[in-house]
Amino acid sequence: MIVTPDVPDLPYKWVEGRKYFELIAEPVERELLSGIIMKGWGYNSSIPGPTIRVQSGEWVTIRVINRLPDSTSVHWHGLDIPNVMDGVPGVEPSPKIEPGQYFDYTFQVTNPPGTHMYHTHFHTVIQEMMGLGGGFIIENSNESSVHRDYFIMLQEFHLKNLPKGEMHKGVFELDPIAENFNFFTMNGRCYPHTSPLAVRYGETIRIRLGNVGMNAHPIHLHGHQFLVAAADGNEIQWSAREIRNTIEVPSGVTYDIVFKANNPGIWPFHCHMPHHISNNFTKPVGGMFTTVTYIK
């Protein structure tokens, strides 16, 4: 089963042979660190939004309800769907969703199993940097070779009124057009508030990485080598898979990496940009950082 640490899955019910989801765009307060809360925009009380899990071939209806003070839309990043459902108002026939209204995105999932994302595509310069994004994963129901499967969304934010190099508890507004980001997150949290990725010796582990932010992030795993198994939701043939321990994840890209848990310990898994593994440029390790932790 695919797990998104610190982020729920989006529940669904079957309606007339389709998976029916409700995705609510709304203001969200997200605790990045203990006592440090940002006021952003997310889905269903979460930043990033809940992970949507489907199967290839299924029909889905995703009702997007807008409780924001601005019109919005949702783009299903990497999915091959009808133009009217693609979620880019003003360019495509897909409508914008006014405050207090909803739109039903209905389509058949025709892509093969893989890792994708969803995010706003209206007033993007503001809305994406307020937090409006999430994971969309097409599962492979026949797969048995992976023992643990994790999804991690990479995001970055600028919290206002927190002087550089200082840390104090409170609730902070976001500046979505700032480029000097001071908090870098994995699944909406900063280290040491991120949840470790639990593994057992001998298991095969997949980690799915997605990025909807501004910066590219070179993600590095200590103590292990991994195979780059998929890019943008497309499986890479075995003969073309690279063996790496660091992979740069640019904006708009997803990668799946797979490794054998064969070196027990507590191993850092983090962005290698020095500013990105701090919390507001303070000295202790923080930011876009978690651990791969062996358990018995």
Automatic annotation (TrEMBL):
It comes from Gordoniibacillus kamchatkensis. Pfam families: Cu-oxidase_2, Cu-oxidase_3. Residues 38-142, 181-281 form the Plastocyanin-like domain. CDD domains: CuRO_D2_2dMcoN_like. The lineage of its organism: Bacteria, Bacillati, Bacillota, Bacilli, Bacillales. This is Multicopper oxidase.
